[in-house]
Specification:
This protein has nine helices and seven strands, in the order βαβαβαβαβαβαααβα. Strand 4, helix 4 and strand 5 form a beta-alpha-beta unit. 47% of the residues lie in helices and 12% in strands. Strands 3-2-1-4-5-6-7 form a seven-stranded parallel β-sheet, with helices on both faces.
Length: 302
């Protein structure tokens, strides 16, 4: 197995940390990046170091704030200076909010879009010159089954942002394949345990609008949604399955990696919908003579 240099964004907790652990356990050099490596994340930094020592693996923390281009550039430069290359980036950084769509101020969805979508653009702009020069690389995007599957209300700004990220991932795949850069999109469904998504979710800023909903026909609706999904997500649903899927993709030979991988305990239908959506998109590329964009070009090929 080739040892790869990997950066995982948003790896202080949740899927990001699980993915970083799994990739390091698989023998790779992994940078678990986070907004800051002091202050509020000091405990996570210490935990990563302890985990690395305990398991004898190479997982390191990296200060990289995906909301600031200067921080992204500095973080990626640190990795390149240490290794001379960067083989894999896992786009995981993101944030969830929960509440009636109307109760979020316009600035809140804009901020959420920045965290979940624009952040990937900042990272790509820092990374792509190096990967293009290498002639080989891999982008792994942690998407969401909400982009094509059944979705509950009260998560509108988050779902809109994840759909935007998924669309960006698809287009980047086409624009990077001739450079020899491969794309895999991981599509998790709902996991109600082990990721702290609901515990860490943001809330609407306009509490007066929230009060209107709670005083009307949607009284108690937030709890109703969470209870309903707790019932359809199997108790044994393990978010580590997402991390294992990423590790499998990374260790799959170049050119053979799947474009999408679904890990959906609740079976919300995204795997069926995306199969149709991706097939239609692929057929269009073939129709216009651009079918080569569907596979990464091997270095040296024309």
């Amino acid at each position: 197995m080739k040892k790869r240099i990997i950066v995982v964004t948003g790896a202080s907790s949740g899927f990001g940390r699980l993915v970083a652990n799994a990739l390091a356990q698989a023998g790779h050099v992994v940078y678990a990046s986070m907004r800051e490596t002091t202050g509020r994340n000091a405990r996570q930094v210490a935990d990563v170091a302890a985990y690395a020592r305990e398991h004898g693996i190479d997982i390191r923390t990296l200060e990289l704030d995906v909301s600031a281009q200067s921080s992204v550039d500095a973080g990626i430069a640190t990795v390149i200076a240490a290794h001379g290359r960067l083989d894999v980036v896992v786009h995981n950084a993101g944030h969830m909010v929960f509440g009636p769509a109307e109760a979020f101020t316009p600035e809140q969805p804009a901020e959420l879009y920045d965290i979940n979508v624009i952040s990937t653009q900042r990272v790509n702009r820092a990374v792509m010159p190096h990967m293009r020069k290498q002639g080989e690389g891999l982008l792994v995007w942690i998407s969401s089954s909400s982009s094509a599957g059944g979705t509950p209300p009260y998560l509108s700004p988050y779902f809109a942002a994840k759909a935007g990220m998924d669309a960006l991932a698809v287009q980047y795949a086409r624009e990077l394949s001739r450079w020899g850069i491969e794309t895999s999109i991981i599509v998790p469904g709902a996991f109600t345990r082990g990721t702290n998504h609901f515990a860490h979710a943001g809330a609407p800023a306009d509490m007066a609008r929230v009060a209107d909903y709670e005083a009307g026909p949607y009284a108690g609706f937030g709890k109703q949604i969470q209870d309903a999904f707790a019932k359809i997500v199997p108790a044994e649903a393990d978010p580590d399955a997402v991390a294992r899927a990423v590790a499998t993709v990374v260790d799959t030979p170049f050119g053979e990696r799947p474009f999408r991988v679904h890990i959906d305990p609740s079976d919300d239908g995204a795997s069926v919908a995306f199969a149709v959506i991706d097939r239609i998109r692929n057929e269009m590329l073939h129709r216009v003579g651009l079918g080569d964009l569907l596979k990464p070009r091997i270095a040296g090929q024309q």
